[in-house]
């Protein structure tokens, strides 16, 4: 019996995405960041290969709109996501939480199957 490897192929611009969700706390923090920096349009969320589990979230200030960005908005707070990152981030909820003395963005990603011990990276 021979088993064939099957690879699904899709086009980024022809795929239906469920999108990302921004919590009220995350939206409020993004709006505060924009208020403090007049060059900011919002935040850009992408990923990079890194960390012990495979991928890290990369969150940067967005000062321009790229032609391949998906834009998610809540209460005027905008999150820009490059189309290349959508297969890894689709369905993610972005929250902003306090943990002890730290305040940080948290990513609840249904596609992440495991994460490293420090929580900085995830794998699919």
Describe this structure in words.
The protein is mainly β and 124 residues long. It is built from 2 helices and 9 strands. Strands 4-5-2-3-9-8 form a 6-stranded mixed sheet. The radius of gyration is 16 Å and the shape is globular. The model has no long low-confidence stretch (mean pLDDT 83).
Number of strands: 9
SS-based structural class? mainly beta
- Into how many domains do the coordinates divide? 1
| Unreliably modeled segments | none
What is the string of SSEs from the N terminus onward?
EHEEEEHEEEE
Radius of gyration: 16 Å
Q: Could you please say which CATH topology applies here?
A: Hypothetical Protein Aq_1857, Chain: A
What is the approximate shape? Answer: globular
Please bin the fraction of helical residues.
10-25%
Q: What proportion strand?
A: 35-45%
The CATH architecture can be named as: Sandwich
N/C terminus separation: 29 Å
The largest β sheet comes out as: 6 strands, mixed
The CATH top-level class label: Mainly Beta
Fourth CATH level, the homologous superfamily: HesB-like domain
Summarize this structure briefly.
The chain is mainly beta. It has helices at 24-36, 86-89, and strands at 21-22, 42-50, 54-62, 69-74, 77-82, 93-99, 102-108, 114-115, 121-123. It has a single domain, classed as Hypothetical Protein Aq_1857, Chain: A.
Topology:
Blueprint: E1 21-22, H1 24-36, E2 42-50, E3 54-62, E4 69-74, E5 77-82, H2 86-89, E6 93-99, E7 102-108, E8 114-115, E9 121-123
């Amino acid at each position: 019996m021979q088993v064939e490897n099957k690879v699904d192929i899709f086009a980024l611009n022809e795929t239906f995405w469920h999108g990302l969700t921004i919590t009220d706390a995350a939206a409020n923090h993004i709006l505060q960041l924009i208020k403090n920096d007049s060059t900011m349009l919002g935040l850009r969320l992408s990923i990079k290969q890194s960390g012990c589990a495979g991928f890290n979230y990369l969150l940067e200030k967005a000062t321009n709109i790229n032609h391949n960005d998906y834009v998610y908005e809540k209460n005027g707070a905008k999150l820009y996501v490059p189309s290349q990152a959508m297969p890894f981030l689709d369905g993610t909820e972005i929250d902003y939480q306090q943990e002890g003395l730290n305040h940080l963005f948290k990513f609840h990603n249904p596609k992440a199957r495991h994460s490293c011990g420090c929580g900085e990276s995830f794998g699919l």
